[in-house]
Amino acid sequence: MALFGTKQKDDAQAKTPAAPAATKKGAKAEKNLSLEKDLSRVLIRPRITEKATLGIDAGKYTFEIDPRATKYDVKAAVKAIYNVTPEKVTIVRMSPQDYTARMRRRQGQRSGYKKAIVHLKKGQSMDIMK
Questions:
Q1: Can you give the residue ranges of every domain in the chain?
Q2: DSSP per-residue letters across 22-52
Q3: Which residues pair with 61 in a beta bridge?
Q4: Would you give the distance in Å from CA 46 to the centre of its chain?
Q5: What are the C-alpha distances in Å from 39 to residues 71, 97, 122, 126?
Q6: Which CATH superfamily is domain 39-119 in?
Q7: pLDDT digit string, tens, across residues 71-103
Q8: Residues 71, 76, 78, 79: what is their CA dihedral angle, to the nearest 10 degrees?
């Protein structure tokens, strides 16, 4: 600001706080690197259905996962928990299902969920029944 000769003061003040701001930013980046995601909360449970069981023979394992989880989170969680590196991960969001109770004549809705299909290379397997 050039009003009443304060321009020189503003330039001096702008240079001084810039250095501490850079150190704060660097410290924040280091803090983020030191934090690890809790991978045990990514995989909620394996999906044990007839279709999922048939997929195991083809090397495809199905898990119900956290709604906020990404493919990279699922891949890291499988690698950490089962000591197997997935070849590919497919994520499907299952929509809520409406139902009617037969005897009570009440309607309801089963909650939706998010599932991941983990594809493994030939020869690899996981023991999901632990």
A1: 7-34, 39-119
A2: HHHHHHHHHHHHH----GGGTEEEE---HHH
A3: 118
A4: 16
A5: 12, 28, 25, 17
A6: RRM (RNA recognition motif) domain (3.30.70.330)
A7: 999 999 999 999 999 999 999 999 998 888 777
A8: 140
